[in-house]
Amino acid sequence: MANIGVVGSDGAMGKALRDVIDESGHDYSGGADKGDDVQKLAAVSDVLVDFSAPSALQTNLDAAVKAGIPIVIGTTGLGEAHHKAIDRAAQDIAVLQTGNTSLGVTLLAHLVREAAKRLDSDWDIEIVEMHHRRKVDAPSGTALLLGEAAADGRGISLEDNKESGRDGNTGARKEGTIGFAALRGGTVAGEHSVILAGNEERITLSHSAENRMIFARGAIRAAEWLRGREEGRYTMEQVLGL
Ligand SMILES: NC(=O)C1=CN([C@@H]2O[C@H](COP(=O)(O)OP(=O)(O)OC[C@H]3O[C@@H](n4cnc5c(N)ncnc54)[C@H](OP(=O)(O)O)[C@@H]3O)[C@@H](O)[C@H]2O)C=CC1
Ligand SMILES: O=C(O)C1=N[C@H](C(=O)O)C[C@H](O)C1
């Protein structure tokens, strides 16, 4: 059993995490939100789980490093500087960062990588996502991780081949690019489709999140798995043994 501290505890994910911690038999060591002292929380926790905001990331990493405990980062909207900060922290502690902690999306990413590996670059790859009206970042962290999986399967860099926010006279689609489209509205927990569009045929690989409990359960499973691991940066695929 572990003492699990949650950053972003009053948010939608924070509430789902507290429910899952209760049902799992672990102890909830406390929560932190804007203005709270994360170091105090880390000092009484065996592991931190962070679903808050990119602006909180460095503070959360510093607190975990100082306490010498692992951290699961589910926060999305992270940029290059955030990823470098995660890499630095992973030299001292075990860190797992992912845009989606669910079993279904982790498996979907695996399938997307395999499909992209086997299909030539004249199969266009487009990723469509829809989320609730409160979501502040686009494309979603999941869409980006699926894009990374597709790029990895193709042996290309996503950064150099990403197309998002098409509008106006865009010109014809450039072969080999990976396109993103983001829809926002209502209370949708998370819908993702990866469309592989070939000549006269199309494959669609999709995932639908029916509620946030799937993310919370995956995050707690990751927290359990990280406990006692040596320093390093880990993935959900490793947690699930895929
Ligand atoms: N990886 C995954 O599987 C998933 C990732 N997410 C991601 O998790 C994050 C949170 O999502 P969600 O719960 O819906 O968002 P909410 O807006 O409902 O909750 C965010 C929480 O974080 C708090 N917060 C904001 N800034 C800070 C800060 N600087 N320090 C500490 N706490 C802070 C907020 O407090 P306040 O209200 O006071 O600002 C709020 O309690 C998002 O980035 C989202 O994309 C969500 C679902 C699944
Ligand atoms: O903000 C959300 O709600 C979600 N965020 C993650 C993302 O950006 O992909 C995961 C999930 O889709 C829900």
From TrEMBL:
Keywords: Amino-acid biosynthesis, Cytoplasm, Diaminopimelate biosynthesis, Lysine biosynthesis, NAD, NADP, Oxidoreductase. The active site is at 131 (proton donor/acceptor), 135 (proton donor). GO terms for molecular function: 4-hydroxy-tetrahydrodipicolinate reductase. Its EC number is 1.17.1.8. Pathway: Amino-acid biosynthesis; L-lysine biosynthesis via DAP pathway; (S)-tetrahydrodipicolinate from L-aspartate: step 4/4. It catalyses: (S)-2,3,4,5-tetrahydrodipicolinate + NAD(+) + H2O = (2S,4S)-4-hydroxy-2,3,4,5-tetrahydrodipicolinate + NADH + H(+); (S)-2,3,4,5-tetrahydrodipicolinate + NADP(+) + H2O = (2S,4S)-4-hydroxy-2,3,4,5-tetrahydrodipicolinate + NADPH + H(+). (S)-2,3,4,5-tetrahydrodipicolinate binds at residues 132, 141-142. It is found in: Cytoplasm. Pfam families: DapB_C, DapB_N. Catalyzes the conversion of 4-hydroxy-tetrahydrodipicolinate (HTPA) to tetrahydrodipicolinate. NCBIfam families: dapB. Belongs to the DapB family. This is 4-hydroxy-tetrahydrodipicolinate reductase.
